[in-house]
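Q: Got a minute? One more chain.
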Amino acid sequence: MRLRGATVLAAVTVVVVSGCSTRAPDGGGGGGGEGGGDVATDVGVEGTTIRLGVLTDLTGVFAALGQDITNGNTLYWQDNQVCDTYDVELDVQDTGYVPQTGVQLYSAMEPNILAMQQTIGSPINTALAGDYESDQIVNFPSAWARTLTEIPGTGVLGATYDVEIANGYQYLFDQGLLQDGATVGHIYFEGEYGENGLAGSEAVAEARGLEVVPAQIKSTDQDMSAQVTQFASAGVDAIVLTVAPTQTASVAAVAQAQGLDVPILGSNPVFAPGLLQGASAQWLRDHLYVASPVTAWDAQPELLEQYEAAYPNVTPSLGAIFGYAMGDVMNQVLDAACESGDLTREGVVAAFGELEDVDTGGLLVPINGFETGVSPSTQSLILRPADVPGGAEVVQEAFEGELAAQLAG
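A: Always. Here it is, folded:
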């Protein structure tokens, strides 16, 4: 693979990325024309260029993650093409993690894109569900809420949050860090993300006799003092989080100050490498466990070298690995559509529906396929904070917990 230089992402930008094809389609695509040979095209294909949409977060609560995921998307398409023929152009827009902004930005880009390479955040994916279905848009969300599996053409890349949290609990039980009948405090965002994570806690509680102390917050709430103090008074044996890194940092600081020496289990969005630069860095290293669909950088040394060359002034996070893997899965869909001779939106949706046993070369946990209402995977990795690239290392390879298959649907 060859790098073609870094691309600087702005709040509103178009990123043109291309590979190294020697074959080109005959004639121009778009407008219902023929993309090449017998490949039919309609929206979002012009000549030898496919345009994909990206609705990310560059200024909101997941700004750091959104930047890294989008960098990963960009890096992937710099070195890969669809059917060794079509270059990919990314239309990148910043929603700020505001659903209405996402709806407006999508409305503007929709007439010119074939599919959505990335839509970050369960609330924004949910707000766009009707549009994605009516417009026949294949979309890969940077989110893992169960509700997203109900959107036709939307592919959640990993276990849904309830399955993911249950797998995390399984690891704590297996390691003797949590016992049946324990009391657990769970802080969660209002909305699909947090509520689906809480559903995982509730399922484990029923199976293992846990008592769950729930604490719902808004994504804009940053001080977790009241919640952690409540947990300390309840005598919790663990804290579970379906929040953002900002809240994780606050939980760690308050728990450390109060001497609350219990494990913290989080869904994959709770961690960012910047957390290891704060005053509670060592406390997090000792207490935080993250259930994740994404591997760590130490398992992908060649990709790490490539990423650092493209983005030398960026601290690599696992979000970049996820973004790169998203590109790989999208390419599998588009390649299949192209090989079937149909790169129209309808053809891409059809190819998406036939995708199963998705292999990303270890970047992600195994993806079984995309069935309505079913978690696409039953497996998770367990990561711990560490002084390594990306700030986390794998302590448990992809595995399926005892409740995973039952929760998956």
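A: The radius of gyration is 21 Å.
Q: Perfect, thanks.
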